[in-house]
Amino acid sequence: MKCTFIIYRFDPAMDKGPEYQEYTIDAEPTDKILDCLNKIRWERDPTLSFRSSCAHGICGSDALVINGRVELACQKLVRDYRTANNFVIEPLPLFRVIKDLVVDMDPFFEKHREVRPYLISDEEPPETERLQESENQAFLEPALRCILCASCTASCPINRANDKYLGPAALLRAFRYIADSRDSATGSRLAQLDGEDGAWGCKTMWWCTDVCPKSIPVTKCIGQIKRLIKEEKKQAGS
User: Fold this and answer.
1) How much is the pLDDT for 128?
2) DSSP labels, 97-161
3) Does residue 139 contact residue 96 with C-beta atoms inside 8 Å?
4) CATH architecture of 106-237
5) CA dihedral 11, 12, 18, 19 (to 10 degrees)
6) pTM for this structure?
7) CB under 8 Å to 63, separation ≥6 — which residues?
8) What are phi and psi of 141, to 5 degrees?
9) What does DSSP assign to residue 166?
10) Residue 145: is its pLDDT beyond 90?
């Protein structure tokens, strides 16, 4: 079948502003959107820029806006769309465009690093591994599925209004360690997130959960952080 792809093109080093370029290619209903983009780049226009790596929904590098919705290009098929022969492809919103569909992810990873995404323990290292109860692991397991694709953060309306807001991806990663029974920094982690730029910036709009390619209940995890902050304050006041 013939498929038309209308793709956002912009090179800040050369162009005065963005424009959309149209490509028509042959594609099968079972082709991934990423397959189609590769075909355009390999056969039609080698100047087209976009990110991709594993092509199996693991690396998260090919998050794009496909027909107005943030998706992983490697997870969506041509047949997944009602208008299966017309596609508008755009870069992730919120982030600065480097070229075409490639955006600057540095601010995203800076906020990720800000929440200290590693285990902190004030106990002496054990001779073997640090043991964790299965119930505790099951509680935080959904957060472990995050592939840092930035789909949730790019879709979050709060991030678009407040550039200091940590965003759902960073808060989700913070929850992963706050909820870990082996971590000793729960108090300081909660204190760090107790503000409008942290957990309370979330207005429970569920957009992050809706677009997550790994079906992580991001909003619920942020809600758990809010609950733990309240409990921490209650204990401190008693």
Assistant:
1) 87
2) EEETTEE--HHHHHHHHHT--S----SPPPSSPPP--HHHHHHHHHHHT-----HHHHH-HHHHH
3) no
4) Orthogonal Bundle (1.10)
5) -30
6) 0.92
7) 70, 71, 72, 73, 92, 149, 150, 151, 154, 213
8) -55, -40
9) -
10) yes
21 forms beta bridges with: 7
Scored b (16 or more CB within 10 A) or e, 16-37 reads eeeeeeebebebeeebbbbbbb
Is 2-103 assigned to CATH 3.10.20.30?
yes
pLDDT for 20-69, tens place per residue?
999 999 999 999 999 999 999 999 999 999 999 999 999 999 999 999 99
Residue 151 amino acid letter: S
Task: Report the pLDDT value the prediction gives residue 126, as an integer from 0 to 100.
Answer: 85
Domain regions of the chain by residue span: 2-103, 106-237
Q: How confident is the model at residue 74 (pLDDT cuts 50, 70, 90)?
A: very high
Instruction: For helices 106-114 and 168-178, give the axis angle rounded to 10 degrees.
Output: 30
Structure tokens of 14? 């050369």
Does 238 score more than 70 pLDDT?
Answer: no
Confidence of residue 84 (pLDDT cuts 50, 70, 90): low
Please provide the size of the chain in residues.
238
Q: Which of 186, 190, 199 is nearest to 158 (CA)?
A: 199
